[in-house]
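Workshop exercise sheet. Pairs work together: one partner reads the sequence aloud, the other fills in the structure field after running the prediction. Swap roles for the next sheet.
Pair: D.N. / O.F.
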Amino acid sequence: MLQLVKMAFRDVGRNRRRSFFSSLAVGMGLALLLLMAAVIKGEYGSAMDLTIRLQSGHLQVRAQSYDESKTSLKWEDLIEAPDQVAAQIASLDPVTVATPRLFASGFVSLGNESAGVRVFGIDPLSEANAPYREGLVSGEFLAPDDREGVLIGRPLADKLGLSVGDNINLSVNTSNGDVDEQPFTVRGIYSTQTNAFDSITVFLPLAKAQAITRAENHASTIFVLLNDSAQTDAVVTALQTSNYQVLTWTKMNELLLQTEDLAASYIGIFYLIVLGITATVIINTLIMSVYERTREIGILSAIGMKGRRILAMFLAESTLLAIGGIVMGLILGGLVVAYFNKYGFYIGNMGITGILIGNTIYADLTWKDTVNLTVMAFVITLLAGLYPAVLAARMEPVEALRAEK
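Structure field:
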Protein backbone atom coordinates (compact mmCIF):
# COMPACT_ATOMS: atom_id res chain seq x y z
CA MET A 1 0.00 0.00 0.00
CA LEU A 2 2.83 2.39 0.90
CA GLN A 3 4.44 1.64 -2.44
CA LEU A 4 1.25 2.57 -4.28
CA VAL A 5 1.08 5.86 -2.41
CA LYS A 6 4.69 6.66 -3.33
CA MET A 7 3.97 5.86 -6.97
CA ALA A 8 0.84 8.02 -6.87
CA PHE A 9 2.87 10.95 -5.45
CA ARG A 10 5.43 10.51 -8.22
CA ASP A 11 2.82 10.34 -10.95
CA VAL A 12 0.89 13.35 -9.66
CA GLY A 13 4.14 15.30 -9.54
CA ARG A 14 5.02 14.55 -13.15
CA ASN A 15 2.87 17.40 -14.35
CA ARG A 16 2.65 19.66 -11.34
CA ARG A 17 0.87 22.49 -13.10
CA ARG A 18 -1.91 20.25 -14.37
CA SER A 19 -2.24 18.53 -11.00
CA PHE A 20 -2.34 21.87 -9.19
CA PHE A 21 -5.08 23.29 -11.37
CA SER A 22 -7.07 20.06 -11.12
CA SER A 23 -6.94 20.23 -7.33
CA LEU A 24 -7.69 23.95 -7.53
CA ALA A 25 -10.86 23.18 -9.48
CA VAL A 26 -11.96 20.84 -6.68
CA GLY A 27 -11.04 23.49 -4.12
CA MET A 28 -12.95 26.25 -5.88
CA GLY A 29 -15.96 23.99 -6.24
CA LEU A 30 -15.91 23.17 -2.53
CA ALA A 31 -15.38 26.83 -1.62
CA LEU A 32 -18.40 27.77 -3.74
CA LEU A 33 -20.51 25.09 -2.07
CA LEU A 34 -19.50 26.30 1.39
CA LEU A 35 -20.38 29.88 0.46
CA MET A 36 -23.76 28.86 -0.99
CA ALA A 37 -24.61 26.81 2.11
CA ALA A 38 -23.54 29.65 4.41
CA VAL A 39 -25.53 32.29 2.53
CA ILE A 40 -28.70 30.19 2.47
CA LYS A 41 -28.35 29.36 6.16
CA GLY A 42 -27.68 32.99 6.98
CA GLU A 43 -30.54 34.28 4.85
CA TYR A 44 -33.26 32.06 6.24
CA GLY A 45 -31.92 32.15 9.78
CA SER A 46 -31.88 35.94 9.67
CA ALA A 47 -35.31 36.11 8.03
CA MET A 48 -36.85 33.92 10.72
CA ASP A 49 -35.15 35.84 13.52
CA LEU A 50 -36.27 39.18 12.07
CA THR A 51 -39.83 37.99 11.58
CA ILE A 52 -40.08 36.71 15.15
CA ARG A 53 -38.55 39.82 16.72
CA LEU A 54 -40.28 42.40 14.55
CA GLN A 55 -43.61 40.95 13.59
CA SER A 56 -44.85 37.57 14.79
CA GLY A 57 -43.16 36.82 18.10
CA HIS A 58 -42.97 33.21 19.25
CA LEU A 59 -46.66 33.29 20.06
CA GLN A 60 -49.64 35.54 19.54
CA VAL A 61 -52.88 35.35 21.50
CA ARG A 62 -55.89 36.71 19.63
CA ALA A 63 -59.66 36.68 19.80
CA GLN A 64 -61.19 33.64 18.13
CA SER A 65 -62.86 35.77 15.44
CA TYR A 66 -59.86 38.00 14.65
CA ASP A 67 -58.93 38.05 10.95
CA GLU A 68 -55.41 39.36 10.39
CA SER A 69 -55.90 39.82 6.64
CA LYS A 70 -58.71 42.31 7.31
CA THR A 71 -57.00 44.03 10.28
CA SER A 72 -60.37 44.00 11.99
CA LEU A 73 -61.01 46.63 14.66
CA LYS A 74 -64.46 45.48 15.72
CA TRP A 75 -64.57 45.06 19.48
CA GLU A 76 -65.79 41.47 19.22
CA ASP A 77 -62.66 40.66 17.18
CA LEU A 78 -60.28 42.20 19.71
CA ILE A 79 -58.96 41.26 23.15
CA GLU A 80 -60.64 43.14 25.97
CA ALA A 81 -58.52 44.39 28.90
CA PRO A 82 -55.31 43.36 27.11
CA ASP A 83 -53.01 44.57 29.90
CA GLN A 84 -54.51 42.04 32.30
CA VAL A 85 -54.29 39.21 29.76
CA ALA A 86 -50.67 40.12 28.97
CA ALA A 87 -49.77 40.16 32.68
CA GLN A 88 -51.21 36.66 33.15
CA ILE A 89 -49.23 35.34 30.19
CA ALA A 90 -46.03 37.07 31.34
CA SER A 91 -46.28 35.26 34.68
CA LEU A 92 -45.44 31.94 32.98
CA ASP A 93 -41.79 30.93 33.49
CA PRO A 94 -40.91 30.28 29.80
CA VAL A 95 -42.22 33.72 28.76
CA THR A 96 -39.70 36.53 28.35
CA VAL A 97 -42.22 39.24 27.58
CA ALA A 98 -45.91 39.52 26.74
CA THR A 99 -47.30 42.83 25.54
CA PRO A 100 -50.54 44.00 23.87
CA ARG A 101 -50.46 45.42 20.38
CA LEU A 102 -53.14 47.06 18.27
CA PHE A 103 -52.95 46.95 14.48
CA ALA A 104 -54.70 49.33 12.10
CA SER A 105 -54.35 50.20 8.43
CA GLY A 106 -54.13 53.76 7.19
CA PHE A 107 -52.00 56.23 5.28
CA VAL A 108 -49.62 59.09 5.99
CA SER A 109 -49.95 62.32 4.01
CA LEU A 110 -47.79 65.41 3.70
CA GLY A 111 -48.97 67.98 1.21
CA ASN A 112 -49.55 66.17 -2.09
CA GLU A 113 -47.48 63.14 -1.00
CA SER A 114 -49.00 60.11 0.71
CA ALA A 115 -48.11 56.52 1.54
CA GLY A 116 -50.07 53.53 2.82
CA VAL A 117 -48.95 52.32 6.23
CA ARG A 118 -49.69 49.80 8.93
CA VAL A 119 -50.10 51.36 12.35
CA PHE A 120 -48.71 49.49 15.37
CA GLY A 121 -50.08 50.57 18.73
CA ILE A 122 -47.45 49.50 21.26
CA ASP A 123 -46.61 49.81 24.93
CA PRO A 124 -43.45 51.97 24.63
CA LEU A 125 -42.04 50.58 27.91
CA SER A 126 -42.16 46.93 26.81
CA GLU A 127 -38.89 45.06 26.21
CA ALA A 128 -40.45 43.67 23.02
CA ASN A 129 -39.78 47.06 21.40
CA ALA A 130 -35.99 46.69 21.74
CA PRO A 131 -35.42 46.31 17.94
CA TYR A 132 -37.17 49.63 17.27
CA ARG A 133 -35.63 51.43 20.24
CA GLU A 134 -32.12 50.21 19.39
CA GLY A 135 -32.72 51.08 15.73
CA LEU A 136 -33.39 54.76 16.34
CA VAL A 137 -31.62 56.78 13.68
CA SER A 138 -32.65 60.19 15.00
CA GLY A 139 -35.02 61.71 17.51
CA GLU A 140 -36.37 59.89 20.54
CA PHE A 141 -38.57 56.92 21.29
CA LEU A 142 -42.24 57.24 22.11
CA ALA A 143 -43.52 57.84 25.65
CA PRO A 144 -46.64 56.06 26.99
CA ASP A 145 -48.51 59.34 27.51
CA ASP A 146 -47.51 60.91 24.18
CA ARG A 147 -50.73 61.91 22.41
CA GLU A 148 -49.23 63.64 19.40
CA GLY A 149 -46.05 61.75 18.55
CA VAL A 150 -45.39 59.06 15.96
CA LEU A 151 -42.36 56.89 15.15
CA ILE A 152 -41.69 56.21 11.46
CA GLY A 153 -39.20 54.12 9.49
CA ARG A 154 -36.29 55.64 7.61
CA PRO A 155 -37.48 54.46 4.13
CA LEU A 156 -40.82 56.18 4.71
CA ALA A 157 -39.06 59.32 5.98
CA ASP A 158 -36.83 59.37 2.90
CA LYS A 159 -39.80 58.88 0.59
CA LEU A 160 -41.75 61.78 2.06
CA GLY A 161 -38.74 63.94 2.90
CA LEU A 162 -39.48 63.88 6.63
CA SER A 163 -37.22 64.60 9.57
CA VAL A 164 -37.67 64.68 13.34
CA GLY A 165 -40.09 67.43 14.40
CA ASP A 166 -42.00 67.53 11.10
CA ASN A 167 -45.79 67.38 11.16
CA ILE A 168 -47.79 64.82 9.19
CA ASN A 169 -51.40 63.77 8.83
CA LEU A 170 -52.23 60.19 9.77
CA SER A 171 -55.51 58.65 8.64
CA VAL A 172 -56.61 55.31 10.11
CA ASN A 173 -59.61 53.03 9.96
CA THR A 174 -61.71 52.92 13.11
CA SER A 175 -63.76 50.26 14.90
CA ASN A 176 -67.05 51.67 13.57
CA GLY A 177 -65.86 51.56 9.94
CA ASP A 178 -65.04 55.24 9.58
CA VAL A 179 -61.71 56.90 8.82
CA ASP A 180 -60.22 59.33 11.32
CA GLU A 181 -57.47 61.79 10.37
CA GLN A 182 -55.30 63.58 12.91
CA PRO A 183 -52.05 65.56 12.82
CA PHE A 184 -48.95 64.04 14.43
CA THR A 185 -45.37 65.09 15.02
CA VAL A 186 -42.49 62.83 14.01
CA ARG A 187 -40.81 62.06 17.34
CA GLY A 188 -38.23 59.69 15.94
CA ILE A 189 -37.02 57.82 12.87
CA TYR A 190 -35.99 54.17 13.22
CA SER A 191 -34.33 51.54 11.05
CA THR A 192 -34.36 47.77 11.61
CA GLN A 193 -32.34 47.30 8.39
CA THR A 194 -35.43 45.58 6.95
CA ASN A 195 -36.84 47.76 4.20
CA ALA A 196 -40.05 45.76 3.74
CA PHE A 197 -40.99 46.39 7.37
CA ASP A 198 -39.59 49.89 7.90
CA SER A 199 -41.22 51.37 4.79
CA ILE A 200 -44.81 50.64 5.88
CA THR A 201 -44.82 50.48 9.68
CA VAL A 202 -45.45 53.45 11.96
CA PHE A 203 -45.76 53.28 15.74
CA LEU A 204 -48.09 55.01 18.15
CA PRO A 205 -48.38 54.59 21.92
CA LEU A 206 -51.05 51.97 22.60
CA ALA A 207 -53.33 54.41 24.43
CA LYS A 208 -53.28 56.85 21.52
CA ALA A 209 -53.80 54.08 18.96
CA GLN A 210 -56.83 52.84 20.94
CA ALA A 211 -58.23 56.36 21.07
CA ILE A 212 -57.84 57.21 17.39
CA THR A 213 -59.28 53.86 16.26
CA ARG A 214 -62.14 53.93 18.80
CA ALA A 215 -60.88 50.64 20.26
CA GLU A 216 -60.67 51.75 23.88
CA ASN A 217 -59.14 49.14 26.21
CA HIS A 218 -58.85 46.60 23.39
CA ALA A 219 -55.92 45.14 21.44
CA SER A 220 -55.52 43.06 18.33
CA THR A 221 -53.10 40.59 19.88
CA ILE A 222 -50.84 39.76 22.78
CA PHE A 223 -47.30 39.57 21.38
CA VAL A 224 -45.26 36.93 23.24
CA LEU A 225 -41.52 36.21 23.21
CA LEU A 226 -40.15 33.09 24.89
CA ASN A 227 -36.83 32.23 26.50
CA ASP A 228 -36.49 29.31 24.09
CA SER A 229 -38.52 28.50 20.98
CA ALA A 230 -38.43 24.82 22.00
CA GLN A 231 -40.84 25.73 24.84
CA THR A 232 -43.52 26.88 22.39
CA ASP A 233 -45.73 23.79 22.64
CA ALA A 234 -45.61 23.78 26.44
CA VAL A 235 -46.74 27.41 26.60
CA VAL A 236 -49.48 26.79 24.03
CA THR A 237 -50.81 23.96 26.21
CA ALA A 238 -50.82 26.25 29.24
CA LEU A 239 -52.70 28.96 27.33
CA GLN A 240 -55.36 26.79 25.73
CA THR A 241 -58.77 28.39 26.22
CA SER A 242 -62.02 28.67 24.32
CA ASN A 243 -61.90 32.47 24.55
CA TYR A 244 -58.74 33.00 22.48
CA GLN A 245 -56.76 31.47 19.68
CA VAL A 246 -53.05 30.88 20.23
CA LEU A 247 -50.85 31.05 17.12
CA THR A 248 -47.29 29.72 17.14
CA TRP A 249 -44.35 31.18 15.22
CA THR A 250 -44.36 28.14 12.90
CA LYS A 251 -48.04 28.66 12.08
CA MET A 252 -47.61 32.38 11.45
CA ASN A 253 -44.52 31.86 9.30
CA GLU A 254 -45.61 28.91 7.19
CA LEU A 255 -44.64 30.67 3.96
CA LEU A 256 -41.08 31.23 5.17
CA LEU A 257 -40.72 27.64 6.36
CA GLN A 258 -42.11 26.27 3.09
CA THR A 259 -39.78 28.51 1.09
CA GLU A 260 -36.83 27.30 3.15
CA ASP A 261 -37.76 23.65 2.58
CA LEU A 262 -38.18 24.28 -1.16
CA ALA A 263 -34.82 26.05 -1.35
CA ALA A 264 -33.14 23.21 0.54
CA SER A 265 -34.46 20.67 -1.97
CA TYR A 266 -33.34 22.69 -5.00
CA ILE A 267 -29.95 23.65 -3.61
CA GLY A 268 -28.98 19.98 -3.68
CA ILE A 269 -29.27 20.12 -7.48
CA PHE A 270 -26.89 23.09 -7.60
CA TYR A 271 -24.47 21.22 -5.39
CA LEU A 272 -24.46 18.30 -7.83
CA ILE A 273 -23.97 20.64 -10.79
CA VAL A 274 -20.93 22.28 -9.20
CA LEU A 275 -19.46 18.95 -8.14
CA GLY A 276 -20.18 17.52 -11.58
CA ILE A 277 -18.11 20.28 -13.19
CA THR A 278 -15.20 19.67 -10.83
CA ALA A 279 -15.50 15.92 -11.39
CA THR A 280 -15.19 16.48 -15.14
CA VAL A 281 -11.87 18.23 -14.57
CA ILE A 282 -10.57 15.28 -12.54
CA ILE A 283 -11.75 12.78 -15.17
CA ASN A 284 -10.02 14.71 -17.96
CA THR A 285 -6.81 14.99 -15.95
CA LEU A 286 -6.62 11.28 -15.17
CA ILE A 287 -7.62 10.20 -18.68
CA MET A 288 -4.81 12.33 -20.08
CA SER A 289 -2.50 10.71 -17.55
CA VAL A 290 -3.63 7.25 -18.64
CA TYR A 291 -2.93 7.89 -22.34
CA GLU A 292 0.40 9.54 -21.59
CA ARG A 293 1.47 6.49 -19.59
CA THR A 294 0.04 3.76 -21.80
CA ARG A 295 3.43 2.09 -22.40
CA GLU A 296 4.26 2.35 -18.70
CA ILE A 297 0.99 0.65 -17.84
CA GLY A 298 1.78 -2.06 -20.37
CA ILE A 299 5.22 -2.62 -18.80
CA LEU A 300 3.74 -2.82 -15.31
CA SER A 301 1.19 -5.36 -16.54
CA ALA A 302 3.87 -7.35 -18.36
CA ILE A 303 6.04 -7.68 -15.23
CA GLY A 304 3.10 -9.00 -13.26
CA MET A 305 1.22 -6.09 -11.74
CA LYS A 306 -2.40 -7.10 -11.36
CA GLY A 307 -5.17 -5.00 -12.82
CA ARG A 308 -6.56 -4.30 -9.36
CA ARG A 309 -3.23 -2.76 -8.29
CA ILE A 310 -3.19 -0.54 -11.36
CA LEU A 311 -6.76 0.41 -10.48
CA ALA A 312 -5.69 1.17 -6.91
CA MET A 313 -2.74 3.25 -8.14
CA PHE A 314 -4.95 5.59 -10.18
CA LEU A 315 -7.51 5.78 -7.38
CA ALA A 316 -4.65 6.79 -5.08
CA GLU A 317 -3.81 9.59 -7.52
CA SER A 318 -7.42 10.82 -7.51
CA THR A 319 -7.36 10.60 -3.70
CA LEU A 320 -4.29 12.84 -3.57
CA LEU A 321 -5.92 15.32 -5.96
CA ALA A 322 -9.07 15.24 -3.82
CA ILE A 323 -7.16 15.84 -0.58
CA GLY A 324 -5.22 18.72 -2.11
CA GLY A 325 -8.40 20.23 -3.51
CA ILE A 326 -10.30 19.87 -0.22
CA VAL A 327 -7.50 21.54 1.72
CA MET A 328 -7.51 24.47 -0.72
CA GLY A 329 -11.31 24.54 -0.73
CA LEU A 330 -11.53 24.70 3.06
CA ILE A 331 -8.99 27.52 3.15
CA LEU A 332 -10.60 29.50 0.31
CA GLY A 333 -14.13 28.80 1.50
CA GLY A 334 -13.27 29.65 5.08
CA LEU A 335 -11.79 33.00 4.08
CA VAL A 336 -14.69 33.93 1.81
CA VAL A 337 -17.33 32.86 4.35
CA ALA A 338 -15.51 34.75 7.12
CA TYR A 339 -15.53 37.90 4.97
CA PHE A 340 -19.24 37.72 4.21
CA ASN A 341 -20.01 36.71 7.78
CA LYS A 342 -18.54 40.05 8.85
CA TYR A 343 -19.58 42.35 6.00
CA GLY A 344 -22.45 40.46 4.37
CA PHE A 345 -24.18 40.88 0.99
CA TYR A 346 -26.08 44.14 0.67
CA ILE A 347 -29.34 43.50 -1.19
CA GLY A 348 -31.17 46.73 -0.38
CA ASN A 349 -34.94 46.55 -0.64
CA MET A 350 -35.04 43.19 -2.40
CA GLY A 351 -37.35 40.70 -0.75
CA ILE A 352 -40.27 38.32 -1.01
CA THR A 353 -43.85 39.29 -0.28
CA GLY A 354 -44.82 37.97 3.13
CA ILE A 355 -41.22 37.35 4.23
CA LEU A 356 -39.03 39.83 6.06
CA ILE A 357 -35.48 39.83 4.72
CA GLY A 358 -32.85 42.21 6.03
CA ASN A 359 -31.11 44.70 3.77
CA THR A 360 -27.87 42.75 4.29
CA ILE A 361 -27.47 38.96 4.27
CA TYR A 362 -24.67 37.53 6.39
CA ALA A 363 -23.09 34.14 5.73
CA ASP A 364 -23.53 31.57 8.49
CA LEU A 365 -21.63 28.31 8.00
CA THR A 366 -22.30 25.41 10.36
CA TRP A 367 -19.98 22.51 11.17
CA LYS A 368 -22.63 20.11 9.89
CA ASP A 369 -22.71 21.74 6.44
CA THR A 370 -18.91 21.92 6.36
CA VAL A 371 -18.48 18.22 7.10
CA ASN A 372 -21.28 17.11 4.77
CA LEU A 373 -20.02 19.16 1.82
CA THR A 374 -16.40 18.13 2.41
CA VAL A 375 -17.32 14.45 2.44
CA MET A 376 -19.52 14.95 -0.64
CA ALA A 377 -16.70 16.66 -2.56
CA PHE A 378 -14.24 13.92 -1.55
CA VAL A 379 -16.54 11.09 -2.61
CA ILE A 380 -17.45 12.72 -5.93
CA THR A 381 -13.77 13.27 -6.72
CA LEU A 382 -12.98 9.62 -5.97
CA LEU A 383 -15.87 8.48 -8.15
CA ALA A 384 -14.60 10.76 -10.90
CA GLY A 385 -11.26 8.92 -10.80
CA LEU A 386 -12.94 5.53 -11.06
CA TYR A 387 -13.49 5.53 -14.85
CA PRO A 388 -9.88 6.44 -15.78
CA ALA A 389 -8.65 3.87 -13.22
CA VAL A 390 -10.80 1.11 -14.74
CA LEU A 391 -9.66 2.19 -18.21
CA ALA A 392 -6.03 1.75 -17.16
CA ALA A 393 -6.65 -1.53 -15.36
CA ARG A 394 -8.33 -3.13 -18.39
CA MET A 395 -5.57 -2.31 -20.87
CA GLU A 396 -4.10 -5.33 -22.64
CA PRO A 397 -0.33 -5.47 -22.00
CA VAL A 398 0.56 -6.24 -25.64
CA GLU A 399 -1.52 -3.38 -27.04
CA ALA A 400 -0.22 -1.01 -24.37
CA LEU A 401 3.41 -1.90 -25.16
CA ARG A 402 2.82 -1.23 -28.85
CA ALA A 403 1.55 2.29 -28.12
CA GLU A 404 3.71 5.11 -29.44
CA LYS A 405 5.67 7.18 -26.98
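Discussion prompt: The mean pLDDT is 87. What would you look at next?
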